[in-house]
Prior knowledge:
Largest sheet of chain B: 7 strands, mixed
Subcellular location (chain A): Cell membrane
Pfam families (chain A): BPD_transp_1, BPD_transp_1_N
Number of helices of chain B: 19
Strand content of chain B: 15-25%
Shape of chain B: globular
Distance between the termini of chain B: 68 Å
Domain ABC transmembrane type-1 (chain A): 100-493
Strand content of chain A: under 5%
Oligomer: heterodimer
Shape of chain A: globular
Helix content of chain B: 25-40%
Structural class of chain A: mainly alpha
Family (chain A): Belongs to the binding-protein-dependent transport system permease family.
Order of helices and strands of chain A: HHHHHHHHHHHHHHHHHHHHH
Helix content of chain A: over 70%
Protein name (chain A): Peptide/nickel transport system permease protein
Amino acid sequence: MLKFILRRLGISVLVLLLASVLIYWLVTISGDPLQDLRESNADNAAQLMQARIELMNLDQPWYQRYWAWLQGVAGCFTGSCDLGTNINGADVLALTSLAAGSTLRLVTLATLLAIVIGVALGILTAIRQYSGFDYAVTFLAFLFFSLPVFWAAVLLKEYGAIRFNDWIASGDMEPPMVLGIAVIAAILLPAVLGGTWRRRLYTGAGTFAFVAVVLYVLNILEWYRNPFFGLGMVLLTAGGAAVLTTGVVAGLGNRRVLYGALTTAVVGTVSYLVFAGLLLEPSSWWTLIGLFVLAVAVSIGVGAAWGGYARKQAMLVSAVTGVLTSLVVVFDILVANWSGFLQLKPRPISTIGSQTPNFTGDFWESVLDTGMQLLLPTVLLTLISVASYSRYTRSSMLETMNQDYVRTARSKGLSERAVITKHAFRNALIPITTIVAFDFASLIGGAVITERVFGWKGMGALFIDALNHVDPAPVMAFFLVTGVVAIVMNMLADIAYAFLDPRIRR
Amino acid sequence: MKMRRASAAVAVVATGALLFSACSSPAADNEEPETEETTTESASVDPGEPCKPDLGITETADGEIKYSVGEDEFLGYNTLTPETYSTYNSAVTERMHTGFWYFGVDGTICRDETFGTYEAISEDPLQVQYTIADDAVWSDGTPITYADFLLEWATKAITADGTVTEDGSEDPLFNSVSGLTLGDYTPDGPQADSADAKSFQYDYETVYADWEIVIEAPLPAHVVAEQAGVSTEELVTAIQELDMEVLEPAAEFWSTGWLSSPGELPDPALVPSSGPYTFKEDGWVAGQSITLTANESYWGAPAATRELTFRFAAADTHVQALQNGDLNVIEPQATVDTVTQLEQLGEAVTVTTGQTLTWEHLDFNFNNGVFSDSLEAREAFAYCVPRQKIVDDLIKPIDDSAVVMNAREVFPFQTEKYDEVVAESYDGRYDEVDLDLAAEKFAAAGLEEGTEVRIGYSAPNPRRADQVSSIKASCDQVGFEVVDAGSPDFFDQDLPNGDYEVAMFAWAGSGQKASGQNIYATNQPQNYGGYSDEVVDEAWNTLASTADETVHLEQTKVIEKQLWDTLFGIPLYAHPGVGAFSSDLENVRDTAAQSGIVWSSEQWSRAS
């Protein structure tokens, strides 16, 4: 295995090196770095051109400049990285680290969401193949996949930001809106759940009534401007998460796992009370991360204590429940901070920027501010990636569902849940890992348009600006980062293969 | 069977979605666009003063106004290096650096009496007396003095060898975007009694038409002196005596010490302000925005609003950002789409459109090709270029006030001067397309049917492509065969190599009086087409070497007339500009000058 990895690594580095030569050359012939000066009517345009030629060493042939660049990069291995300077004389290394940080913030959440939602949708559509739900998801997947990002972003800003902000100013949900949302929910839920027409009708009616009443009550309470969630709801949601996770992973029949998960939910809610002081006004992100790690550790402990014969499963389910409970707690805190945040920022969702300039809120209000700014681009990126993930998962799932071993599993009397999660899903994941790995690598560099329309300065902006100025150094930095990420993600995919498919390990 | 029903359902849903998106896209809003309610002001017909009026602002109101020039990051306090010199950077630094003058809305040179006064005490030889206001101080309390202006001169005069420049062509010591021009005109530099004198005098070796605007807003000499490890007095002496031991570290700091890494504001002690705004502590977030706050020590009328934030956002995001209140003042790309979008926003937004100091033109190639030695061929082409149609079709939808431009050195919105110059230089013969006359000239020039005319421009540029097709539709009837020769490396390859018959591009008016000499006089660097005319050369020499404004005007008429008569090229129109702001703002005024709508930002205030 090690030899295999090393060999692949060696080949990747070689490919990276050759590609860097090619890209450098392509950038240098992509245009004229002096263009703006040639159009200038300054008296000393010739002197300015000379200055830029010296700054960018344009008097040297491209391979000499490439060699100089490569030497600077080689310095990275001896601790003195030099990625050169851009056309404005700014240090590219500093620019790149800023840009990479910004892009990571933008794409991490979107990628995670896209994987979770996309894979889930793929499995559901595979199970309900050729149902109305399947067709609807297929239709939407193709629609989103072919969306022109730019246009979709403009629409998102119009409805997700501008109209939402107009609405939240009063926060009053009018009856048609309430009914509309209820109808949509009443159509969606039965379609996912499936069953006979009679069952669907009942589910639909029930959903409609429930959603309409909840929305109506929330409206009366002016919940949208002054929302609350409360400890009771936290406990209830955490408990729900515990039951759901158990149901999917181990089956509700496995009492030990169920009790472990439920205990985790209760312990989580109680520790929310205990750590309330720290949680409500944390000194830094590290406090939160520390608490989160503690929560996961405790959850695993709880699972192990309850586990017995199903120890491994109980630990997994409890850990997942612990993570979900932590998220619910954070959600509760954010909800509690919402009205204060609205005071500071009456129009909560901006159309540009990764944060509000000169925002003066406390920790959680700032989290809300950056979170709100993350919302629209994340939705956009997620929509696009979900499309491909759900399609791949669906076909991969359908393929494994037709395999002999799945039939065998069914025929030996395993529950449908066990067949799907243990036998079909795990095998269906193998091809998806490759796609996820590649996708993440391309997202790092590929969010060019999203970054631009939402005013984020990430890797995409770095690349495009530099290319427009025929400025090789930032383009090469972009290439280095995306290239290295691609290699690393490929390695991770290989390792994940080995984890998912024991045959590879041998 | 099941499949078929299902695909029918999918089709229905798809159609529905399309209908839905058609109804709900912002471009096709169900409501009638309320154009009549939109307040559209035309900046160019604004009857007011070109300069900033005194609005009687005495106090700074709390609040923040957000503006964006574009997505470009702020680069540093010193905008005068070639690496930082851009409208994006100067939009910020101009709020912190004031000088004796600024450009008004129509390009007029406005004197800033708050900063000080100046007067040409003699026109030939040119001697100018400058007096800085007594209360003019940097925001750290140091008075603005002769030393600051001496340093400003030094950056544009001293060569890397430690001498004062002979002809402006040597390597400069300071990395200044202006080169060594000032030292060329006035090798002695400004003279005063002492380093902390408030008044000084410039003696020019040669009379220079643009003497007013070569003396720009200074950077703080006391900061440079401290960084070079000397006192301000010692720096002044060092400049006067060309002491390189002091000047080298000073130049090093001047050229690099004021450039910043994104998001890292320099030490406040290094960046004092002489304008109404200064850096706000922690106000710069890399890639996001930079905030300026009112300069408490500014001696003139204080900034009307406390904070001014520049957000780094791409121009195509500006309209929605304005609608959502993420930006309060914008200057989007001047396209028909933008204007329509802005007008649909109704009363909440005020739109200003007008002409700018950048102008579009067609230039003939005099080095080679069909037009190089035949005036009649050029005339034939000029008669068939549909100038009015181009303006009506492509520019008027953006800016109502757009007109065909009939001059090169003056702009239509500089009404008085423009009318006077055009009346003297051009009789309106190319105003309307005259295909018969064009055909006559075509024949007289002895051109053959199907003579190829390559119109070169820097592609891609949709508007210019449209212009070429308009010209083609008209001129092909005469017998020309117009070819769209737009290419991405037009300036790099086609223009220097002469692979064109007609070049189409725009010059950005610099506000200088004599800058046109570089374009129209024989063998000048920007005379790409190789035009040469004795009358024009001589008129430029006369114009450039006097400070007398009546002579400037007279010579401009001579030049314009000669350029029309010999058909150097065909001016088309001044580029349109669009600005927009939330209607609750007051005193926002667009300008034709390069500084953009932000030029008077210290007067912007929110209606209470």
